[in-house]
Write a structure and sequence with these properties.
- The complex is a heterodimer of chains A (about 325) and B (about 550).
- Chain A has three domains: about 80 residues; about 50 residues; about 110 residues, Rieske Iron-sulfur Protein (3-layer Sandwich).
- Chain A is about 30% helix and about 10% strand.
- Chain A is built from five helices and twelve strands.
- In chain A, a hairpin with a 5-residue loop joins strand 8 and strand 9.
- In chain A, helix 1 runs antiparallel to helix 2.
- Chain A is flat and about 105 Å long.
- With about 550 residues, chain B is mainly alpha-helical.
- Chain B folds into four domains: about 60 residues, no CATH class; about 35 residues, no CATH class; about 300 residues, Up-down Bundle (Cytochrome Bc1 Complex, Chain C); about 100 residues, no CATH class.
- Chain B is built from 20 helices and ten strands.
- The longest helix of chain B is centred in the C-terminal third of the chain and has 32 residues.
- Chain B is globular, with a radius of gyration of 31 Å.
- The termini of chain B are close together.
- Classes of the chains: A alpha+beta (about 325), B mainly alpha (about 550).
- Chains A and B meet through strand 1, helix 2 and strand 2 of A and helix 1, helix 2, helix 7, helix 9 and helix 10 of B.
- Strand 2 of chain A pairs parallel with strand 9 of chain B, so a sheet runs across the interface.
Chain lengths: ~325, ~550
């Protein structure tokens, strides 16, 4: 008997020999069920069926390539280990392990694409739609049982809905309201007060001779250095006072002018100053503001001038705010009037 | 050979003169046909089947995956997500989600002694002091960019081939949600290091929320904990959203996405033997498994290489975030570019009146526009069904050329968003081409309308032309051109050579059992003619054994 006997010991017990359906009895497996699927008998395909042939034209050639790739992968992995061992270096780490992973990926993909059965194989689809009877039964179950719940208990149902509604509202308290404070007037006011000194980020008070013409510095009210809302840009546009807008004649002592640094578009710091054109530029969305014209936007998406801080110079020569800002600084919001 | 044999004898049999064509564990082949669990694998499967009925799940192994390169895109997205989770876990071991300011003493000398947030300092630590950390951090960032990109291109593939039509509308909507969440989580992720660029991005996000009428200021205050930048609670909040909540939703939706895919089976392109009622391709086990595992490693390898070789988001060059500082060329990650571009080219239309302000210059491009975009994405399957009146089930995909209107519309849409994306670089372009910002801005205001129109019309014409070309199922053959002695040219088609093109076989069901029969066909396992192999080599070829009857 030359057939495979299919006998194997299992924990010492001996099984009955099994006869393999094969070419001995002349019933060589024939590809069955071409193009169709049936549960029984299982589709049986001979090893020499053309569907099982690999897609590669030259199998040995492909195998050699895959062997090369796997070897390369092993080298890459080992190389990464060595680089790491030596203290690591980002570029070498990327190269070694990257090549290793790429090579093993390429090897696996090529194995699947070129050496495994090329097919094509087919599978039948089953309609998503159930039969009319099933649909009807499902709908009936949902509706009828639903009715059973609510039958002559409509009042209970309404009470339930009411209770759930209350829960829906109160659950928002911890989930939403607890997250933060109410805005109140926080967006409308800054920490600038009447008479506030202008100080640098390091808290140093600005004196009347600190800036040359064309000079620029970011200032804050004392105690709020670095504050996002209070940030103000102080410029010296000339040596003598000038008028940015009617009614602001006294706001620019000795050519000093101060504007809120918070862009009225999206709130970025208006950080760039072009002395030649006397423009302030926001680098986020390129809004430009005319320094000599009350920071009127001349270009870009900003809708409003930057609010101007009225300045004065006190008897000791320090720059101070005459008044706080006369309007909310920064981008627009619903409550802004 | 006796009919009964012990294990030892059986083993001898397997290697001896009487054998079968299948290489490994020949004895198992016989037993399997009788339902005996003899080999270790079969015993294990039997053990599991007794408890879980895994035998009934065999058809899952037969699940057919149609072969087309464009079906890779979703897989690339999936594997990028796997990489994101793995690298993200590594990063979370070192990252400190806190805006508390400390004096930096780390490895990066230029920043020593400066006040930086703990988040920023710990990101620098990952980059410079944790071994392998630089590669993994950059890989994480690259994987996020690739993740969103793969989703976007995958979505385009579905759109242009009509893969969203009945019965796949729900899966389309899950996909749209995944795109949205991927963008949101990408934004949260690159905001975490709290560097100058991402902090500025947060400031813009705050202003965008603020622009929403009626509830904007409340929403902004609740999210950030007060006036920007809040009282330090934004960092831990973004952290938990980024590493836990959004990823869990994404993972669950990916699960739903794949569940629906398995349940409905893949759509496929038209082709030989392919109908609305079947799927033709390769089975899950082993062919697709090998290929997709390969793709996983390729994606991982490419991302790892990018992480190691291509610098991304060098936050030490930007510096730590200070609300009063800003830098030139502030651009978000690529997938936010369309919104940034829309904000840049939007005119400054602010509505003021009745004691209220509606900042349309922010609300329109940054809230209503993306809202409308995603609403349109969600609704598209139903909108198209309404327009075409086509409510049939479609499992065969369209070639884009045969749907010129949809293709033209899609191409115009892609062109529109790409133009907006380009508009997010107005300042860089103005600098590069040495033209005024004004010129660049007005160019984009014009281009954002003109480019989609032109692209749409051109695409429509191309589709019409392509669709008019004759289509045959015959593979192209080479022609032989010869000249006679008289100088006459004769052209004839060359006969097809083996290996020129795959012979189009009729598809068959995936065989559960692969029988013997190698010897009879005169072929070895690889389907090679055995005559090609010298006799002495035959025994050395793995898997092939000589039968000596």
């Amino acid at each position: 008997m030359n057939r495979e006997t299919g006998v194997q010991s299992d924990g010492g017990r001996i099984h009955e020999p099994v006869h393999v359906p094969g070419h001995a009895s002349g019933d060589r497996p024939i590809p069955e069920n071409h193009g169709e699927v049936s549960d029984s008998p299982l589709p049986l395909v001979a090893l020499d069926d053309p569907h099982l042939r690999p897609a590669a034209k030259n199998v040995r050639h492909t195998e050699r390539w895959i062997a090369f790739l796997i070897a390369l992968a092993a080298l890459g992995f080992a190389g990464y280990g060595a680089v790491y061992w030596q203290g690591g270096q980002p570029q070498l780490e990327g190269l070694t392990l990257g090549i290793g992973l790429l090579a093993i990926g390429a090897a696996l993909a090529a194995w699947g694409k070129y050496l495994l059965p090329r097919g094509p194989f087919v599978e039948e689809r089953h309609d998503m739609r159930s039969s009319d009877v099933e649909r009807e039964q499902m709908a009936a179950a949902v509706i009828d049982r639903g009715k059973l719940v609510m039958r002559r208990r409509g009042f209970l149902g309404k009470m339930l809905a009411g209770a759930a509604g209350i829960l829906g509202v109160v659950i928002a308290f911890p989930v939403i309201r607890s997250l933060g404070p109410l805005p109140k007037l926080a967006l409308d006011k800054t920490n600038w007060r009447k008479g506030s000194y202008l100080v640098t980020i390091h808290g140093r008070k600005i004196k009347e001779d600190d800036l040359e013409v064309g000079g620029i510095i970011t200032v804050f009210p004392p105690g709020y250095e670095g504050n996002a809302m209070d940030q103000t840009v102080l410029l010296r546009a000339s040596t003598s006072p000038f008028t940015t807008k009617a009614g602001r004649e006294t706001w620019t002592p000795k050519g000093y002018v101060a504007y809120s640094k918070v862009c009225t578009h999206a709130g970025c710091p208006v950080g760039l100053y072009q002395e030649q054109t006397q423009q302030l530029l926001c680098p986020c969305h390129q809004s430009m503001f005319d320094v000599l014209d009350g920071a009127q936007p001349v270009f870009g998406p900003a809708p409003r001038p930057l609010p101007q801080l009225p300045l004065m110079i006190d008897s000791e020569g320090y720059l101070r705010a005459q008044q706080p800002y006369d309007q909310p600084v920064g981008p627009g919001f619903w409550e802004r009037s | 050979m006796s009919e009964t044999a012990t294990s030892k004898e059986s083993t001898t049999t397997g290697q001896g003169s009487s054998s079968v064509g299948i290489g490994s564990g020949g004895s198992g082949t016989g037993a399997r046909h009788q339902g005996r669990f003899d080999s270790a694998t079969e015993r294990a499967l039997g053990w599991l089947d007794d408890r879980l009925g895994v035998g009934k799940g065999r058809s899952l192994l037969d699940k057919i995956f149609p072969d087309h390169w464009s079906f890779l895109l979703g897989e690339i997205a999936l594997y990028s997500f796997v990489v994101l989770v793995l690298t993200g876990v590594f990063l979370s071991l070192y990252f400190v989600p806190s805006t508390k300011e400390i004096i930096y003493h780390g490895a990066y000398a230029p920043l020593r002694g400066k006040l930086v947030s703990e988040a920023y300092a710990s990101t620098l630590k990952i980059s410079f002091s944790v071994r392998g950390g630089m590669v993994i951090r950059q890989m994480h960032h690259w994987a996020a960019d690739v993740f969103v990109g793969a989703i976007a291109i995958h979505m385009m593939r579905i759109f242009f081939t009509g893969g969203f039509r009945k019965p796949r509308e729900l899966n389309w909507m899950v996909g749209v949600t995944l795109l949205m969440l991927a963008i949101v989580n990408g934004f949260l992720g690159y905001s975490l290091p709290y560097d100058l660029v991402s902090g500025t991005g947060l400031r813009i996000a705050y202003s965008i929320i603020l622009s929403i009428p009626l509830v904007g200021s409340y929403l902004a205050f609740f999210l950030f904990g007060g006036v920007f930048p809040g009282n330090g609670i934004i960092e831990p909040r973004m952290f938990i959203l980024h590493v836990l909540i959004v990823p869990i939703i994404i993972a669950a939706l990916i699960g739903a996405h794949l569940f629906m895919l398995v349940r409905q089976k893949h759509a496929q392109f038209p082709g030989k033997g392919r109908t609305e009622h079947n799927v033709v391709g390769s089975p899950l086990y082993p062919t697709f498994m090998a290929k997709t595992l390969g793709l996983f490693f390729i994606v991982t390898g490419v991302l790892w290489m990018l992480g190691g070789l291509v610098q991304i988001n060098p936050i030490w060059q930007y510096g730590p975030y200070q609300p009063y500082k800003v830098t030139y060329a502030v651009q978000p990650d690529w997938y936010m570019g369309w919104l940034d571009g829309a904000m840049r080219i939007m005119p400054s239309w602010e509505f003021t009146g009745f004691g209220h302000t509606i900042p349309l210059e922010v609300l329109l491009p940054a809230v209503l526009f993306p809202g409308l975009t995603f609403t349109l994405f969600y609704a598209w399957p139903f909108v198209e069904a309404r327009i075409t009146g086509d409510r049939a089930v479609h499992n065969i995909l369209d070639f884009p050329r045969y749907r010129p209107k949809r293709t033209a519309l899609g191409a115009a849409g892609v062109a529109f968003y790409f133009t907006l994306f380009s508009a997010s670089a107005t300042d860089v372009l103005a600098n590069f081409f040495q033209v005024s910002l004004n010129t660049v801005l007005w160019s984009f205001r014009f281009l954002v309308i003109a480019v989609p129109v032109v692209v749409g019309i051109v695409t429509y014409r191309i589709c019409k032309e392509l669709a008019a070309m004759p289509v045959t199922d015959e593979p192209k053959r080479s022609v032989i051109l010869s000249r006679t002695e008289e100088g006459e040219y004769v052209m004839e088609e060359a006969s097809i050579r083996p290996g020129d093109a795959p012979d189009d076989l009729d598809p068959i069901a995936v065989p559960a059992r692969i029988g013997a029969g190698v010897e009879d066909a005169g072929l070895d396992e690889d389907g090679l003619d055995k005559e090609d192999i010298p006799g002495e080599l035959l025994d050395k070829v793995p898997g092939v054994r000589r039968v000596t009857t």
